[in-house]
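Example 3.
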Amino acid sequence: MDLQEPSRFPDRAHCVQADRADPFGALVDDFDLPEGVIYLDGNSLGALPRSVPPRIEEVTRREWGEGLIRSWNDAGWIDLPRRVGAKIASLIGAQADEVIVADSTSVNVYKLLSAALAIRQDRSIVLTDSGNFPTDLYIAQGLLRQLGPSKQLLTVDRRDIVEAINDQVAVVMLTQVDYRSGEKFDLAAVSARAHRAGALVLWDLAHSAGAFQVDLGAAQADFAVGCGYKYLNGGPGAPAFAYVARRHHDRLDQPLSGWLGHAEPFAFESDYRPASGVNRLMCGSPAVLSMSALDAALAVFERAEPRGGMAGLEAKVQRLTELFIDRFESRCAGSGLRVISPRNPNRRGNQVSIAASDPEHGYALMQALIAAGVIGDFRAPDILRFGFAPLYLRHVDVWDAVETLARLIDERVWDEPRWRQRKAVT
Amino acid sequence: MDLQEPSRFPDRAHCVQADRADPFGALVDDFDLPEGVIYLDGNSLGALPRSVPPRIEEVTRREWGEGLIRSWNDAGWIDLPRRVGAKIASLIGAQADEVIVADSTSVNVYKLLSAALAIRQDRSIVLTDSGNFPTDLYIAQGLLRQLGPSKQLLTVDRRDIVEAINDQVAVVMLTQVDYRSGEKFDLAAVSARAHRAGALVLWDLAHSAGAFQVDLGAAQADFAVGCGYKYLNGGPGAPAFAYVARRHHDRLDQPLSGWLGHAEPFAFESDYRPASGVNRLMCGSPAVLSMSALDAALAVFERAEPRGGMAGLEAKVQRLTELFIDRFESRCAGSGLRVISPRNPNRRGNQVSIAASDPEHGYALMQALIAAGVIGDFRAPDILRFGFAPLYLRHVDVWDAVETLARLIDERVWDEPRWRQRKAVT
């Protein structure tokens, strides 16, 4: 069987065979997945790596309980943001000293958008995609309102972004993978286009880091943020990361100038003096428990490296998503549901999104699907979203997920009122 | 023995007796303290409550591992910031809906200082104490630099704060307990003074919350922030809290407008619409593991409530600090070390600070003391700092700590080079 022919899975047995041949297949056992669940929501919250619980126990009982305050030195807590940042750097084509782990993605967008605007202070426009993830839009709105009318946020349709980059644009702020459709920007091409116009680029890698190959260095990207709890599997609300290209380090200036971003936090000086490079992006004390979970979770990427690393994982996920789309289209034709993700796998993140002609049907179908053990999520107004985490998903999972989906569609489960009840988090 | 006569501990046996009579005595067993350690650094990092490890295990293995994304609803993760905020509210004289847990203290100072300045936009000055904890100063510097020359930071000596409040001051920003000396501002009196001048007050309760009685409501305090990892025992880098008096909720406006502070985060709207009240202080996703540790840690305060609550804990800590000072002055006279904390227990937080005539001696003495099992910390340039957490400290601990201190002074341990080696975190 040629693994390079992704649509060639005539039956489930071929999926079993593909899983046996998968160099990453053994890594499924590095995750503690519940019985009877096919997890297609690793793009919202990554699964639990088995390396995490013992590390958290160790950090809690030994480092905190026994070590107490001494563990800031003895257990190296003070270096966690740099140490974990360096591990993430290796997954996104960055240098170890270009990435730091701190705060949330939202807070890091605020810091880096401020920093980028400070560097390009001669220009007035922040350009972004009108369908960007809401927190990126809201943070930009909050910052620009604070900065006053000299700066403006320009939002255009995703398709018009490249055209809209001109010599008034200070910063192009984009999420590489659209959270609704899964469509992927060409990071290198858009960065190059921005640079030709003299603009800086701030990438949100929420659905990119740990998902597929990212090479910030080759793209000469300026700034990036990303999420610890999606494809990096750091656990619910895990700290986020921030990247700044080394060439901007000396001019890096951000307003959340907390004590851990000071050149000498324990000198307790009266005036802020920034630490070197990305260290100045730290603000308050790191959430050690949550950051240690993220640190432990990254071990599986080290184990993935000799098996093909991010390049191999990207190839695997392209097969999985192709398989999902093929099976969906053969099994669910005429259902009123349609794939809205790009068909070109190079333009698609690790995600397949399906739009429902009736949003209420779509919501109900996803609730029924989750109850049946196939976990995706729903994104208003009408999207069923399926994420494919290549570290712990098998070809058979994809096959079986579509079978369940097809069955629920055949049963018209959206007619059952219990699946229509809205939950707080969708 | 009269517990109201704190200085009457002629010998160790009286301490043992006081511990037996202590209504909070049994709560020591709620903490997992290492053998052979007397922990006088709960003001830097609270000890590990025994309620925390099983909760963290549950959150990691069951809620994250088995529940996966469903736990945002099913385990109530989405409500954690409010739920934990309500518990902290009960310890600081606030209403349940006036406190939220989010981000770090530093980030929350930024939000609330912005918010306070937005409310008093007719005024230009942020007044603070030149000895305020550095991160408060640095954050104010970062914010004011961003806001431009129309706003100014005025720092004056702690003793001159009240005098400096005038009708140009927009916000008085103070940490209630001075991190160096342990001196305590009268929260009600200073708040009243600020209000008479038309200014708002932002209190940093880092060394107050969970330490002694705080009544933000009675003081009509406007804004407050505080730390989860000191006297609240939430673990290293635990999330912080933010308080806003209900009367300011409608006008509350802060620039870190992330998606979880939106009125309907899961409607994925393009424009930010603030959630109600303090909910709009949320920004990105909460660090669930770290926040759950804090949540579990607060259980011990519920157990303290029928034993006398914060009033009883405050009385206990006054006895402990008096005992420490009395013993220090009788055992360590002529050592070149002197108590610099206020002698009036009502003007002193849960802390006794001792200044060394030679800073190098002071640093070395603290390192030797830590190695001998009595853990305090050192604050540049010359302060040995001892914190007293009334939930897990006994009178005998205080007695024994001073005995060890006196012995090390007698031995002139600062002459040993090994104690002079500086560590990253002091």
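The first strand of chain A starts at residue 38 and ends at 39. DSSP finds 13 helices and 13 strands in chain A.
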